[in-house]
Design goal:
Helix content is about 30%, strand content about 20%. The protein has about 210 residues and is an alpha/beta fold. Strands 1-8-7-6-5-4-3-2 form an eight-stranded parallel sheet. Strand 4 (about 85), helix 4 and strand 5 (about 110-115) form a beta-alpha-beta unit. Helix 2 (about 45-55) runs parallel beside helix 3. Bound molecules: D-xylitol-5-phosphate and zinc ion. Zinc ion binds near residues 32 and 194.
C-alpha cells in the first residue's frame, strides 16, 4: 500500500490545527525541522512538535534537517515524534548509528535521509538498523521545488537492497511529488510519498491525497 505524508511546511502556520485536520485522510504527518546550518532555512522545532502531538493522532514523521542530529533525537522522540529521520551527511557514520540507536531505544521508528548528491551506497551502513530510508528528490531546505527525475536509479537501487535482504524498511521520497511524479516514484519503488505544495495548494485536499496514492 502506498502511504501519503503531507508536509506541513506548505501549511499556514497561523492555522496549523486547521491545516492538520485537513489532511487527516493521509497516513503520516511530515514535519520538516531546519536549523539554518545544515540547510539554508529555519522552520520549526521541538515546541511545535509537542503542540502538534497534542492535537492529532496521526503518526508524526519528523525529518531532521539539522547538523549533528544525535544531539536532539531523544528530545524529538519525547516531544511526540513517531518516526525520526536523520541525514547521513549531517554527521559521521558512527554518530548516525548512535542517533538511530537512541531513537529505537525510545520505542520510535528511525530512518536515514540522502540528499540528491549523496550516492545510494551511503545508506548501506544503516539499512538493517533503521525502519525508513528517505530519498530526497529536491535539495532540502524549501518546498515547491522541481522534482529531480535523475534520482530514480538511486531509488530503484535502494528498493532492490531492501527487497533482496527482506528488510522491514519503508522507502520514502520527498520533494516535488505531485499527481504526475507520484506515478514515477511508485514505479521506481517508493512506498511513502511526502507532498507539501501538491497537497496544500489543491482545491480538494482529500481528493488530492487519494490521487497521489497512484
Ligand atoms: C524540503 C522538505 C520537504 C518539502 C516538500 O526540504 O523536506 O518536505 O516540504 O515540499 P514540496 O512537496 O512542495 O516539494
Ligand atoms: Zn521533508
Amino acid at each position: 500500500m502506498i502511504k501519503i505524508a503531507p508536509s506541513i511546511l506548505a501549511a499556514d502556520f497561523a492555522n496549523l490545527e486547521r491545516d492538520i485536520y485537513a489532511v487527516r485522510s493521509a497516513d503520516y504527518l511530515h514535519v520538516d525541522v531546519m536549523d539554518g546550518l545544515f540547510v539554508p532555512n529555519i522552520s520549526i522545532g521541538l515546541p511545535v512538535v509537542q503542540s502538534i502531538r497534542a492535537i492529532t493522532s496521526m503518526p508524526l514523521d519528523v525529518h531532521l534537517m539539522i547538523d549533528r542530529p544525535v544531539r536532539y533525537v531523544e528530545r524529538f522522540c519525547q516531544a511526540g515524534a513517531d518516526i525520526v529521520t536523520v541525514h547521513v551527511e549531517a554527521d559521521s557514520v558512527e554518530n548516525t548509528l548512535k542517533a538511530l540507536e537512541i531513537i529505537r531505544a525510545q520505542g520510535k521508528r528511525s530512518g536515514v535521509v540522502l540528499k540528491p548528491g549523496t550516492p545510494a551506497e551511503d545508506a548501506l551502513p544503516f539499512l538493517d538498523r533503521c525502519s525508513m530510508v528517505l530519498v530526497m528528490t529536491v535539495e532540502p531546505g524549501f518546498g515547491g521545488q522541481k522534482f529531480m527525475t535523475e534520482m530514480m536509479p538511486k531509488l530503484r537501487q535502494i528498493r532492490k537492497w531492501i527487497d533482496s535482504r527482506r528488510l522491514d524498511c519503508e522507502l520514502e521520497v520527498d520533494g516535488g511529488v505531485d499527481p504526475v511524479t507520484c506515478k514515477t516514484v511508485i514505479e521506481n519503488g517508493a512506498n511513502v510519498l511526502v507532498a507539501g505544495s501538491a497537497v496544500y495548494k489543491a482545491p480538494d485536499i482529500p481528493e488530492r491525497i487519494k490521487e497521489l496514492r497512484g
